[in-house]
What does this fold into?
Amino acid sequence: MGMAGFLDLHSHVLAGLDDGARQLEDGVAMLRGLGELGFSEVFATPHQRAGMFLPEAAAISAAHGALEAARAAAAVPVTLRLAAENMWDDVFFARLSQRSFPRYDGGPAFLFELPVQQLPPRLEDVLFELRVSRMLPVMAHPERYMPLWKDWDRLTQLAESCALVVDLAALDGAHGRQQGKQARRLVEEGVAHACASDVHTSEDVRAAGAGLAWIKKRLGLAAVTRLLAEHPRRIVAGELPDPVG
It folds into this structure.
């Protein structure tokens, strides 16, 4: 499949670290399912969230090595890569000055999430500072953040300082009606930069596939390629793509 395949920017395939894969075989099953959907590369992005899921680097590395060995043994044709989903919290801010939070392959881009009910203070300021320092913040599931449901202007402005990555399953309504509506609008209006699976279980692969089918039916194959292959690779390289271009 090589470079022609999709690249998944967001998944919870590593076992025993967070609310994702429970057992090693769960992770292998998810990778196999994603491969069947057309993904040739998958980033494992375990949570880094104070007071909830904060696996240490050594534990993440061990889980990554174990899944890679199991994937190879099962001959699943997917390249497994490593990053993390950083919650915008005290741990993230403690790591911010040293730039010591986990990033995509240790490069300039990193995945982050926000509390869903209230946006943090100075969000735009911090994003701007990160961009000035040549880093690329990548916002996980922008469709979930309630304050942005009624503030489309703010959401489109955020798209100028960070990459917005919509969950595929949300496009199929798997995460709620309002979330689905917002996800579809982000993709249809060309505000989302990319889409990702955010799989936590094997069942999530089916929902991601349904979201992928929605994009293909609604916007065509070129949009699928842009949102799942071209733009994700540019994002990992630290480039903020023009959403619709």
Summary: Residues 202-219 form the longest helix (18 residues).
